[in-house]
């Protein structure tokens, strides 16, 4: 069943084409605490079309961008040249620990005033005038 998922879906992990490209052109740089594996072009070779090395991630589970820790996110987006495995990376005070994307689940963020919020909606303030086509 996993092979069918690799053939027909991209959101359940890598596809066969991605697996082949990674095997042929990639070298492992490291893994994060979630089991995601990070790659770059072999030897750090520059892509002639882009002018910089390609970097990518193969997720351990479903392909979810919010599962990338801050240190690896910076490396993937060429903000830093040194991957977190090659240095003693410590997150900054303002970098929060990972929290999965809860959109579409009962735990999704619903601000006050939302029709989906469990709290009572605040009453209208009376500062709204409805449009009247005859006026």
Keywords:
11% strand; 3 helices; 3-stranded antiparallel sheet; alpha+beta; 135 residues; single chain
Structural summary, described in words:
With 135 residues, this protein is α+β, with helices and mostly antiparallel strands. 18% of the residues lie in helices and 11% in strands. The protein has three helices and three strands; from the N terminus they run H-H-E-E-E-H. It has helices at 2-8, 16-25, 70-76; strands at 26-31, 37-41, 55-58. The protein has a three-stranded antiparallel beta sheet. The longest helix has 10 residues, at 16-25. The protein is elongated and about 70 Å long. The mean pLDDT is 81.
Structure classification: alpha+beta
Low-pLDDT stretches: none
Percent range for helical residues? Answer: 10-25%
Query: Strand order across the biggest sheet?
Result: 1-2-3
- The tally of strands reads 3
**Overall geometry:** elongated
CA(first)-CA(last) distance: 64 Å
Topology:
Layout: H1 2-8, H2 16-25, E1 26-31, E2 37-41, E3 55-58, H3 70-76
Antiparallel strand pairs: 1-2, 2-3
Write a concise synopsis of the structure shown.
By secondary structure, the protein is of the alpha+beta class. It has helices spanning 2-8, 16-25, 70-76; strands at 26-31, 37-41, 55-58.
């Amino acid at each position: 069943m996993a092979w069918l998922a690799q053939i027909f879906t991209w959101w359940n992990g890598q596809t066969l084409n991605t697996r082949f490209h990674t095997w042929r052109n990639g070298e492992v740089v490291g893994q994060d605490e979630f089991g995601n594996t990070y790659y770059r072009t072999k030897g750090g070779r520059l892509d002639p079309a882009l002018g910089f090395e390609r970097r990518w991630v193969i997720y351990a589970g479903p392909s979810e961008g919010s599962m990338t820790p801050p240190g690896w996110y910076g490396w993937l987006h060429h903000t830093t040249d040194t991957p977190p495995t090659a240095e003693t990376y410590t997150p900054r005070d303002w970098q929060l620990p990972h929290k999965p994307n809860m959109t579409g689940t009962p735990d999704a963020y619903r601000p006050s005033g939302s029709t989906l919020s469990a709290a009572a909606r605040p009453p209208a303030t009376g500062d709204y005038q409805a449009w009247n086509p005859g006026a």
